[in-house]
Amino acid sequence: MACWNLWHGCRKLSEGCRHCYVYRQDAQWEQDASQVRKTAAFNLPVRRDRTGRYKIPPGETIYTCFTSDFFVEEADAWRDEAWTMIRERSDCTFLIITKRIDRAAVCLPADWGDGWPHVVLCCTCETQDRADYRLPIYLSLPLRYREVICEPLLERLDLSRYLATGRIDAVWCGGESGSEARVCDFDWVLDLRRQCVDAGVGFRFRQTGARLRKEGRIYRIRRPFQHSQARKAAVDYSIER
């Protein structure tokens, strides 16, 4: 696994952005996280060592643009070059998660076709309102693989009509991190899992968040344990494709 934050900073867009971890981290260094800037790691995927080999080896999954949004408007001037590097590294998998799925159609490269098989473009939805706005757009795009990311999960979601299309391959969910985190209810997690099982869609409870409600009690979970506690819940659902 490799992380490629080719630009940094983003404008808050929806309710899931309220307690954005990038804003929280940048505030510690008195930086303005709303200012989008190209980073020194911009060309990371195509960097080579002294032998001429790529520094990121073939077969790696590259987590792309996790301190911004790949489709943020302020990065429009740099995105074609980013696509060129992604095209070159077809020996890796690029995982891109966006809240701006409504910009994807105009930002995809001209040779995208039915989708590049080494790019997994994921769509987030943290509330029912955002699910009902973003998922119809997401389903209309030419993609080889689709994952829906419900993080932070802020309320009970009904995704059944979208899952029933057979065009969503997996759903991830998780709570919100940070000292101001809103509650994630475990019943919402289980209900989302049930919808995925009914539709034959993979499901992953990725992390609990800082405040998890289970059976009426709110548990405060420290950041180092949020992923491991989610795994201990043992509610992930895998399917063969």
Record the SSE blueprint.
Layout: E1 2-4, E2 7-8, H1 21-28, E3 37-38, E4 61-64, H2 76-88, E5 93-98, H3 104-107, E6 119-124, H4 128-140, E7 146-150, H5 160-163, E8 170-174, E9 184-185, H6 186-199, E10 202-207, E11 211-214, E12 217-220, H7 226-232
Parallel strand pairs: 1-4, 4-5, 5-6, 6-7, 7-8, 8-10, 9-11
Antiparallel strand pairs: 2-3, 11-12
Strand proportion, as a percent range, falls in: 15-25%
Q: What strand order characterises the main sheet?
A: 1-4-5-6-7-8-10
Radius of gyration: 18 Å
- Average pLDDT for all residues: 97
Beta strand count: 12
Helix content: 25-40%
Structural domain count:
2
Largest sheet geometry: 7 strands, parallel
Low-confidence stretches: none
Intertermini distance: 22 Å
The ordered string of helix (H) and strand (E) elements is EEHEEHEHEHEHEEHEEEH
* Class by alpha and beta content: alpha/beta
